[in-house]
What we know:
Layout: H1 9-13, E1 18-21, E2 25-30, E3 34-39, H2 46-55, E4 65-71, E5 74-80, H3 87-93, H4 98-113, H5 124-134, H6 139-150, E6 157-159, E7 168-170, E8 175-177, E9 184-186, H7 188-201, H8 210-234, H9 241-252, H10 258-277
Antiparallel strand pairs: 1-2, 2-3, 3-5, 4-5, 6-9, 7-8
Helix pairs in contact: 4-8, 5-6, 5-9, 6-9, 7-9, 9-10
Amino acid sequence: MTGVPAAGADGAAAIGPRLGAGREAEVYGRGDAAVVKLYRPGFGGHRAEAAALRSLGGAGIAPGLLGVTDRDDRTGLVLERVDGPDMLTLLRRQPWRIWALGGALATTHLAVHRGAAPVDLPDLREVLAARLDDADLAPQQRGFAARLLDGLPDGDRLCHGDYHPGNVLLTADRTVVIDWPGAARGVPEADHARTLLLLRWADPLPGTPLLVRSLIATGRTLLAHRYTQTYRRGSPPLRQLDSWLLVHAAARLSEGIQAERARLVGILDRAQRQNVRRP
């Protein structure tokens, strides 16, 4: 990866305690100022993440990329350590800040979209087409979503691919976007639509108590409204947003989240029936 220093064997050996883990990667400490995001075997998101972080170097809205390392046949990214709670955690601790945080969520997303995407990032329309192929959809629903996608434009803006409050950290003086393996090239509306889908319709994590689910349902409406309001004020006119939302709803079914399936299929069914009734 051009322009990125590689960590040597000593750097790999310096990996400290595990700080967190997700489906694609684990994060380990590396001294006081860095972490190593070590991708699991079979996952190649480090390529897109490194390309996105390189393109944002110096912007301050993402962790700095310090190097690339290998450990036990796994690729890791050496990243600037960013200390601060994610926005989702902060909302749970201080729900009275929801209006201000919804605005900050949109303002930072607009800053992401002002950047031109590196040419080696995948095209977002192609990413969505592949997800539609993998989605658990009836043939008529898949065809409907594919036709919508065919009518949507390409773009050259940087898109995060999974922008939501859990991927936005707040430090004493910065708002920092993390977790970029889904970064792609596209139009801002496409990335904005994915965030709207997550804010409006994504199911809380398994095991979330009923009372907390009720509070989330109430708060997410306000958060989504504030995010949308602020984003639209700072953006050029948004085009074909409803079509992008429907394509994302269909593509989301490739992620196998059964708790969301009935809701997303219902959204697609209603849209398809309305489309058929149009003269």
